[in-house]
Structure prediction request, 224 residues.
Amino acid sequence: MSISRRIAGHSARIVGVTSASAALALGLAGNALACNISEFSAVATCDNFKGVIVVTDKDSSATPATVTVFLQDNGTDVKQVGEQTVRGSAEGTKVTFDEDWKPNTTYRIHVKTDNGAVDEDIKGSLTAPSTACKTPDKPTPTPLPSTPESTPTPSPTPSPSQSTSAAPMPKPSNAPSPGGGSHLAETGADSSTGVIAGVAAALVAVGGGGLYLGARRRGANSAR
Prediction:
């Protein structure tokens, strides 16, 4: 055998071994990067007094996957809580579902990748904790400072001169009284008027009597 043939055969064996090694390495790498249901996990927890379900995807190939959460009752789906798409990472990518879970309730988590590598549930049902999330404490109202009651100021008592005022005098009226007398006689402004009138009447009577007697005397004398 010539030297050229021996060199060619040796070169072919080297190329074959190299190709096989490369194929094995690619196969191992493909298996390492393949998405697997074991790379998904879920937990029910509390976030700021609210119940949530958090699903973590640690698929380092970042294959897009759709995560769907179902509420179960005795192993039967009764409600779909929600559905989200996630791209995993070596550190773990999380998606959160708002769910006011009750203690010890169970959920089914289904994962389906876009490339069809995974289409199954996370192993085992998710069971919520036996203790519900805490409710926020109600703030205690701050009591208002008490205001001392003010003593009412007594109102001043009016003096007798202020409370009892003289009745106003009636205005004088020029209208005649029901008896026909003048206003002056009615109010008694001139109380001596009656006396003067009586004296005048007596004088008139005396004067008349004197005149009458004088006339008779003159008549008697004339007859003699």
Summary: The CA atoms of residues 28 and 191 lie 151 Å apart. Confidence is low (pLDDT under 50) at residues 22-32, 179-189.
